[in-house]
Amino acid sequence: MKKPILGKQTFLKENNERISSYEKFVKEVYENTNDQKPLYTGRYLVTLDEGKSFSKIRKTFKNKLGFKMASTNDFKDEAINESKLKNADALIYEHLGIALIDGDEDQIQILESESNDFIIEPEKIVYVPDDIPSIMNISSTWGISATETMNSSYTGKDIKVAVLDTGFDLQHPDFIGRNINSNSFVNNQTVQDRHGHGTHCIGTACGDSDMHGQRYGVAKDSIIYAGKVLSNQGSGAQSWILNGINWAVNNGCKVVSMSLGSNVFPGQGYDQAYERIAKHALSKGSILVAAAGNDSRRSRNIFNPVNSPANCPSILSVAAIDMNFNVADFSNRSINPNQQIDIASAGVMVYSSWPVPMRYRTISGTSMATPHVAGILALLWEKTPNATPYQIINELRILAKRLPLLNIDVGSGLSIAP
């Protein structure tokens, strides 16, 4: 590609206002030039119906749309990365039945008229949820106690856990000697975390103790896979998330944790591309877990639906609770049909690792609850390594502590370590 599937076009929102193209989106990713959060990149994801092949649509791409095509088969033993693509207008994920395309509105209309064998969706922009800062010097690790991690004989030993986020501080002193694998899916940025969010989430899911010996991580003996899918400014393209998931699953990660998301409106469905790759992950022995989102303000009677991709049926959605075991004020709710909260965990005033020189930080959000659950899933995989993902998920639900709260807010309850 002359530039890695960079969109030249725009997508029409429901109110017919034009939003930024992928080129503008990329500029904002690196320069943080837009105070408002745009919804789409300007590109599209085409998801084939189950059992359909790309044979017919390939011909349409080539003969009617004039697309130059790239394939995931071009990446033999390496992770899919847009920066390595050349002169392509479409990237075909052969094993998933998904294609990422850069086309104008006329081309999209032609494609839609060709067949009913697929769904076309605008590619979303994904963000770090708006986490709520807490008092910086409070080193509260109440979540480790509440989830009974301290009492568990399991440590996630040798279980591969992927955290897809803003990357990781590879020089963090608490992780010296740990088995860490990393990859960046953000064009022109290394995996080194210049944001902080990713390092915090990896600390909770896979960390151990701080410089004073205080335990803050769940699966302290797990194998860490740090995937940078969001830029140092905290945003990324939906395809970057797909590429990160694909990398994690191909490397045998049993858990893939995603404290990220895109807003979902009341009545809006889940993204077919995310659901497709989540089903693929389950078939390969991997469980995807994602943050429900921080868009609600319950104290003002404002409730918002579970974010994408957490709203997908095949991805575990995590809500946040506070130290009093109440639902966090910001935590989203199961509002849309078939888009539920699955489980809850500690998400208020959570202390974990942060890039040096700060080294540690206490923040709040469903982003903080999600890696608690990811770590517990690693403990469950260590306990029953030959189980299926569905058996592990069922055990997670059985072990959960029931709370006197609505299922639409906390699902099965508070996640508890085995």
UniProtKB/TrEMBL annotation:
The active site is at 165 (charge relay system), 197 (charge relay system), 367 (charge relay system). It comes from the Bacteria. PROSITE patterns: SUBTILASE, SUBTILASE_ASP, SUBTILASE_SER. Signal peptide: none annotated. It holds the Pfam family Peptidase_S8. Residues 156-392 form the Peptidase S8/S53 domain. InterPro entries: Peptidase_S8/S53_dom, Peptidase_S8/S53_dom_sf, Peptidase_S8_Asp-AS, Peptidase_S8_Ser-AS, Peptidase_S8_subtilisin-like, Peptidase_S8_subtilisin-rel. This is S8 family serine peptidase.
